[in-house]
Amino acid sequence: MTYQVHIIGGGLAGSEAAWQLAEAGIKVRLSEMRGVEPTAAHKTEQLAELVCSNSFRSDDDTSNAVGLLHAEMRAMGSLILREADKHRVPAGSALAVDRDGYAQGVTDAIRNHPNIALVRERVDALPDGPAIIATGPLTAQSLAEAIGQETGQEALAFFDALAPIVYRDTVNMDIAWMASRWDKGDSKDYINCPMDKEQYLAFVDALLKGDKTEFKEWEANTPYFDGCMPIEVMAERGLDTLRHGPMKPVGLDNPRTGRWPYAVVQLRQDNALGTLWNMVGFQTKLKHAEQVRIFRMIPGLESAEFARLGGLHRNTFIQSPKLLDAALRLKSRPNIRFAGQITGCEGYIESAGVGLLAGRFLAAELAGQPLRPPPPTTALGALLGHITGGGNANTFQPMNV
Fold first, then answer.
1. SS3 label, residue 256
2. Phi and psi for 250 in degrees, rounded to 5?
């Protein structure tokens, strides 16, 4: 197939951008490295694979920023939201998905679209024609170097961490119980593991003393993104930090006591069968053996078996306010647009949203119909404003909606 647009990267942003262009009648070549060369975080070759949580966060329509972004993207025909809705699993008011079914749905939709050619290949140089680079936080070194040579700027980076996943049948439900916070949602969607004060203090002490992954020399000065902070790093910020964060007990009545526990660890369903549950907010850089030892201190998880343990990977992004224009074009080479996490957005749905915008901008440009950026009063407009127009480029940091 002769293509009009080259998209590099088949994650959430690249898949969404390809879909928007293809639906506008434009022929797309979508290059995805996985299948030829693996990454440090991905486990499969599926497009739009979710490597951390299985949640797209709040789905409360327009009552908050994330819900508003969901609503705007659904109205604009988002492939990512369409497949997320098809493969959602119970999660209270959040939109969580069976990650395998969802990724397979996106992959099938892209593979079967007559206007998209999915090619498994690594791209090492910047394209000459109309293109969108959506290679995400794990951009191949060769392409990252090409971007650096073109922009004259070193890529910035931060650490992102993965949360463990537990087999449901190894959770002790004589201690844990099912509930959503404040009984929100249609059902009791979370497994809740309660702690009293003594248990909580012992757990925090173990986190602080646990053996952690050592950084490589080139990672030494890389900061964490606050929205995905490892749990032991949160614990270092103060004794009660976790009780006001991922282990917050408010709104969760323990049916065995009728009271809120001192702290709670929540697990959220991770697949459609309900056999896998992820530990909410428990991103970590603890070594694997330490994770098993310390997380089995949690009441209800004393015999837990883990389908996946937590991990740590380095994310890369560019100084977008300095390098990109208001339509996500690279100022020095306007044939190239950037989309997704590499632009400095953070989060699954944010990455897909920026991919949607990049695809729409390029489709309009090719049709000779310039598309105005969305107003800053919209979630998409606010996200775009942060990436392309906001603040000091030298202190630019990733931000979710």
1. coil
2. -60, 140
